[in-house]
Amino acid sequence: MTAALIEVRGLRVEYPGRAGGRVQALRDIDLDILQGETLGLVGESGCGKSTLGRALLRVIEPASGRIEFLGSDLTRLRGQQLRRMRAELQMVFQDPFGSLNPRRRIADIVAEPLLRARGATRAEAAEAVADLLDLVGLGAEAGGRRPHEFSGGQRQRIGIARALASSPRFVVADEAVSALDVSIQAQVLNLLSDLVRDRGLTMLFISHDLGVVRHIADRIAVMYLGQIIEIATRDDFFSGPAHPYSSALLSSVPVLRAGEPREQQVLEGELPDPANPPEGCLFRTRCPTAMDQCRTTRPDLHEISPGRRVRCHLPLVSSE
Amino acid sequence: MTSTPAPVLEIRDLRVRFDVPAGRLPAVDGVDLTLRKGEVLALVGESGSGKSALSMSLVGLNRGPRTHISGEVSFGGRDLVTASERELRGVRGKDIAVVFQDALAALNPLHRAGAQVSEMIRAHRDVEREQAMSRAVELLSEVGIAGPDRAARAYPHQLSGGMRQRVMIAMGLANDPALLIADEPTTALDVTIQAQVLAVLKRIQRDHGTSVLLITHDLGVVAEVADRVAVMYAGRIVEQGLREEVLFRPQHPYTMGLLGSVPPIDGPVLRRLPTISGTPLTGVGRPPGCAFAPRCPFAHAACAERPALRQRYGHDGHLDACVLPGPARATARSQGGNA
């Protein structure tokens, strides 16, 4: 059994809602991210997947809970300690246009985490940056240019070089290939999976695209309305999801398949208002198999087979 | 033998060029395309391939001093390329409806959803306000909105993305158009909502016999709803045919590469995804021959001349613009378009 690099316990994030209420963006998240794995985090808009990624990097302050990483609780780090820890935690963003400062040279953009969090000298940084730009396939000469001179796919390579500059142990990639055309997306996905493997990185890969997640992730976690509702290995998940929502999500993905277009299992209704969630199971208002118990009792995220957990009273895959 | 339905829209040698600082950009570079009655034709391509420039030019939405449009678009006995702006206003929203990706930007934020649908009816038909409103509520119900009365009274910001897109489709259907142009209609939506909206589009096509020109970059969406597919690259159609033919027996190396680059949700997981090397042509320059040749692993001397779009090794009107011989195509297909 691989050890956990990150242990999240009872993590809760709240936002102020309308009329003085609190909206729970993350509800008591318990999650282990294992050393060296790529964990795919999936779910639809507003499910909390980006909030979770940001909370793990301490970009968002949690209301309560712990994030154990390298022997300390990230939620308690302050000042110098937190700055030093940031070298180990980096992020690749979705928007290759908005996330790079248009006025700065590529070399300066990529060097920044190295100078700030690792306290490298200018000369050390310059050398590392040249290597990184080579590594992501842009070539060291790209360092003298500015973001607008690059295409979307190239900018995403710059974002990856920057995220790797401080040699982090943990990287969050939030919809990192979603803005790219498929032919370019495939190039960037291959690059990312090579780098993760060669450098032994641990990655949280957040995406709404299940095909992309299946390609890159070792395990899959599914979120709905601020909760994790299923977590399983890639093969278990894609061969038979255990939560009715996971199943509906998979069935909704349009697939390239020969023969007549199939009738999809279309999930009815829309996401409930997070400020006013249903009693009992949060998914029951859209669940095709909801029963009385689902209205009264909120299910726990419980283990149904080794390494596989699901938050449902009536999982589609029975316990072993 | 079933007879081929009559054409609704015939595009001949359509060219759309934009004046940009670097010169004249050939966004649509000589396209021939026919849309038949009651079919869903998917126009597929990546960013900058010209698919939106093409669809906008059909209804004159990108006319302007820096746009040069030539060729012929016959629809209902007239040529939309030479039609006056006044004539086009009579066609848009009545005979041809357009649904865009971003419904929030396309809807008027100050008017209630029901009023926007009923105004669309009244813009083209002489009916009473009350009558138009009750028809609007019917249309909202038809596009799968539960509680259409309440939705009719809502302002766009009070509706979810999926609901707004349904309101757009209801507006599109208001005058029972012969042709619905849907430009990335589900791209901004989550998959479960996308599935609902695609089901609505399919039902409309089936129940009303509306022809749909679906512009999309998503090959999965194409597989779910299209009858025929046209693949665009650098302003040209490189392959065209029945859904089953183009998606499962592709003839053009670009289509093969595109299909290979999509990571699937079933089947074996590949260690590396097949890729198309290089980046799409988006600037003003075009090679004299095949536009895909600079990225094509199978390019050879004959590609220096521009290949015509015609039936070569395909069946049932399956056309392609590639000079590659048959056996080489089979090899290319088995390798996902990679040499």
Automatic annotation (TrEMBL), chain A:
Instruction: Identify the residues that the record assigns to the ABC transporter domain, covering every copy.
Output: 11-250
The answer to whether UniProt assigns keyword tRNA processing to this entry is no
Keyword field contains Nucleotide-binding: yes
A Pfam family that this protein carries is oligo_HPY
Q: Which GO terms describe its molecular function?
A: ATP binding; ATP hydrolysis activity
Kindly give the InterPro entries that the UniProt entry links to this protein.
AAA+_ATPase (IPR003593), ABC_transp_ATP-bind (IPR050319), ABC_transporter-like_ATP-bd (IPR003439), ABC_transporter-like_CS (IPR017871), Oligopep_ABC_C (IPR013563), P-loop_NTPase (IPR027417)
Q: Provide the GO biological process annotations.
A: peptide transport; transmembrane transport
> What are the protein's UniProt keywords?
ATP-binding, Nucleotide-binding, Transport
What family, per the record?
Answer: Belongs to the ABC transporter superfamily.
- What name has this protein been given in UniProt? Oligopeptide/dipeptide ABC transporter, ATPase subunit
UniProt source species: Streptomyces bingchenggensis (strain BCW-1)
